[in-house]
Design goal:
Low-confidence stretches: none
Distance between the termini: 14 Å
Shape: globular
Strand order of the largest sheet: 2-1-3-4-5
Helix content: 40-55%
CATH topology: Rossmann fold
Radius of gyration: 13 Å
CATH class: Alpha Beta
Largest sheet: 5 strands, parallel
Number of domains: 1
Structural class: alpha/beta
Order of helices and strands: EHEHEHHEHEH
CATH superfamily: Response regulator
Number of helices: 6
């Protein structure tokens, strides 16, 4: 990624407080932020705006995050390669999550309760190759 380019992050999250916290933390760290409240809106926004990385909740209304990720990966070369970080409260031993992450690389899985905001921002930077 070019040094001067401001990375664009899409947050797909239906919980207002969590979404706002992610948004503030990422903006404070110099990222441009887009927001979608469900998987369908997230898919539409991702295809239209082509963010550099997507933070994606799994359990959401309209379309869940795993379905959104599958559809995005099938949509275009961009969709196949954009890094996605799945953020959820579901157990990491749930087979459908492990299977989805494995087949939809580059994607990563984080349990929300195990990661604080600063760690999530650091993981975003790591995935974008932006170590500071």
């Amino acid at each position: 990624m070019a040094e001067n380019k401001i990375a664009k992050i899409l947050i797909v999250e239906d919980e207002e407080a969590i979404c706002r916290a992610y948004e503030e933390a990422l903006k404070t760290d110099g990222f441009s932020v887009l927001i979608a409240r469900n998987g369908q809106d997230g898919l539409d926004l991702a295809i239209r705006e082509k963010p550099d990385l997507i933070l994606l909740d799994i359990l959401m209304p309209v379309m869940d995050g795993l379905t959104m990720m599958d559809k995005l990966r099938a949509a275009s070369p961009y969709g196949k390669s954009v890094p996605i970080i799945l953020l959820t409260n579901l157990s990491s031993d749930e087979e459908r999550i492990i299977s989805a992450v494995t087949k939809n690389e580059p994607s990563y899985y984080l349990v929300k309760s195990d990661w604080n905001l600063n760690q999530i921002v650091e993981k975003v930077k790591e995935r974008l190759g932006r170590q500071e």
